[in-house]
């Protein structure tokens, strides 16, 4: 191994080391936010998007659920909100009519693997199969292939991002708002966390497989709307990306810069956190 490869290797291992231990505490997550930097991959990976306007993307993972996803689709329709669904291939195969409905109603359907494994610990061939089968299932259900992918648990290596982007053309979507709804903290907590953290350009993570999440959404949508936020799909948000992140943009919720590029170390540990 040459010296430069060794340096790269060490950097990579250090960058991803936080994923290998237990679930990060909020404090650790905060520390990671300030100190750890990933090599930037503009146009490939996003956990939020810098936009000149109050636009956000609501994303719902791990469905479709036979009972909850149709309820959510009713709510989204009532609010005229377009969302993005990161679906599990085996659920798409089982409930393709729900995915077809979501696509028909203007929502974006994106790839979240076939059976929710940890990509960071898999062979390329295994990852490729997971993505291709799901890509095919989405195409069968909606007539369109997805253009976005979210790795289960947010777990993915920098090398995987590059080859997945090259082979499938996917942008890799993480998130910057995580209400930890998979821990089932109750609808009021889910709502409060989303309202506290959401900023222009945010990509909000939730799961349409938990009843409490669906229960939280009517008032969450009401309050986000009251703050002036406008809802778009993730692909629309990316297309709105402002050229440079230096300018101030309207911030209905107050301060805090919006960033364009992901730092995957912000994402939860794959070992213990079902986020994503
Ligand atoms: Zn997931």
List the topology elements.
Layout: H1 3-20, H2 26-35, E1 45-46, E2 55-61, H3 68-79, E3 84-87, H4 89-94, H5 96-104, E4 108-111, H6 124-142, E5 148-149, H7 158-168, E6 171-173, H8 187-197, E7 203-207, H9 211-226, E8 230-231, H10 234-239
Parallel strand pairs: 1-6, 2-3, 2-7, 2-8, 3-4, 5-6
Helix pairs in contact: 3-9, 5-6, 8-9
Zinc ion (ZN) binds at residues 61-62, 112, 116, 152, 276.
Percent strand: 5-15%
**Which geometry do the CA atoms define?**
globular
Give the fraction of residues assigned to helices: 40-55%
Return the structural class. alpha/beta
Pattern of helices and strands: HHEEHEHHEHEHEHEHEH
Distance between the termini: 35 Å
Overall mean pLDDT stands at 82
Strand tally, please? Answer: 8
Count up the helices: 10
Catalogue the unreliable spans. 1-40, 245-272
Biggest sheet overview: 5 strands, parallel
Q: What is the C-alpha radius of gyration, as a whole number of Å?
A: 18 Å
